[in-house]
């Protein structure tokens, strides 16, 4: 007898990351703080 699937639990750690990636393409500010911009060199900031 297969066990019933548990209710989908919200993952706060995954949601912000997915949103940050989408915002980064349109110019997100938070993505720059968490990860350095790829276009600009790390020494510039």
UniProtKB/TrEMBL annotation:
| Protein species of origin | Arundo donax (Giant reed)
Q: Where is this region: Disordered?
A: 1-45
Q: What is the lineage of its organism?
A: Eukaryota, Viridiplantae, Streptophyta, Embryophyta, Tracheophyta
Write the protein's name: Uncharacterized protein
Tell me the superkingdom of the source: Eukaryota
Specify residue ranges for compositional bias: Low complexity. Answer: 31-45
Q: Pro residues: which segments have biased composition?
A: 1-13
């Amino acid at each position: 007898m297969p066990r019933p699937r548990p209710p989908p639990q919200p993952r706060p750690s995954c949601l912000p990351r997915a949103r940050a990636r989408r915002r980064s393409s349109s110019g997100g500010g938070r993505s720059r703080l968490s990860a350095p911009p790829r276009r600009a060199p790390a020494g510039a900031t």
